[in-house]
Amino acid sequence: ALMYIVVETDDLQPATLHLWQHWIRLKQQHPGLKVTVYVSPHNQEFGQVDNSVERNEKFMQWYAWNKDWVRVVCHGLYHTKPPENLGSYEEQGNVVLESLRLLRPYVDLSCLGYKAPFYRMNEDTLKVLADLEFSWFVQWWSLQILKPLKRPLPLFRVLGTHTNMAEANNPDNIDKIFDELNQKLFALENAGWVYSDYESIVKEVIS
Predict the structure, then answer these.
(1) Residues 6+ apart with CB under 8 A from 111
(2) Do residues 118 and 81 touch, judged by C-beta distance below 8 A?
(3) Count of other CB atoms within 10 angstroms of residue 27
């Protein structure tokens, strides 16, 4: 049986697209690499302005250049506190619908996934995702599937980091993060693990 590597990064946004160079370098060393990218389409976690993906040419260009190996996933809307996935059913429905509207050109509509900002969610989050026919969500590093399983989940390992303003303001730290990630990927490749992504794994077990 295959053993899969799932690589993910949280919080890519127009203000941090310049950090994607680190992922490009990683891709050059690991040609099979796929990256799940969690995007809050109006990310304002650090008080950013003019940071929406809506009609953002730089974000559209980033996706056009990298769409063969990135998987964009909804990650709330603003990524601000109080966490938006702790609200009522109606409030969360509005958040998720607007996130999905803005990310529609980028996400896999046949296998919708979600990650709540700050990993904070409640029972209403689950109801909203199910009612909007999402297929899966991730809470911390645990994959939860919202559709009936037809076969067991394969073995997979999740590796990743953030691509947000904290990393943007600390280049020494981000170099270290990617050096460590690079070594982990080489070790897993040498042990026979292969790259996949959440959508592919979920489709494999629900279809």
Answers:
(1) 135, 136, 199, 202, 203
(2) yes
(3) 17
Q: How far is CA 146 from the centre of its chain?
A: 17
> pLDDT digits over 176-204, tens only?
999 999 999 999 999 999 999 999 999 99
Q: Rounded to whole angstroms, what are the CA distances from 161 to 19, 43, 53, 150, 169?
A: 12, 17, 21, 31, 15
The span from the CA of 132 to the CA of 152, in Å, is 24
**pTM of this prediction?**
0.96
Question: Per residue in 24-51, pLDDT tens?
Answer: 999 999 999 999 999 999 999 999 889 9
Q: Quick one: three-class SS letters along the chain?
A: CCEEEEEEEECCCHHHHHHHHHHHHHHHHCCCCCEEEEECCCCCCCCCCCCCCCCCHHHHHHHHHHCCCEEEEECCCCCCCCCHHHCCHHHHHHHHHHHHHHHCCCECCCCCEEECHHHCCCHHHHHHHHHCCCCEEEECCEEEECCCCCCCCCEEEEEEEECCHHHHCCHHHHHHHHHHHHHHHHHHHHCCCEEECHHHHHHHHHC
Distance CA 60, CA 137 (A): 24
Assigned token pair, 83: 């966490």
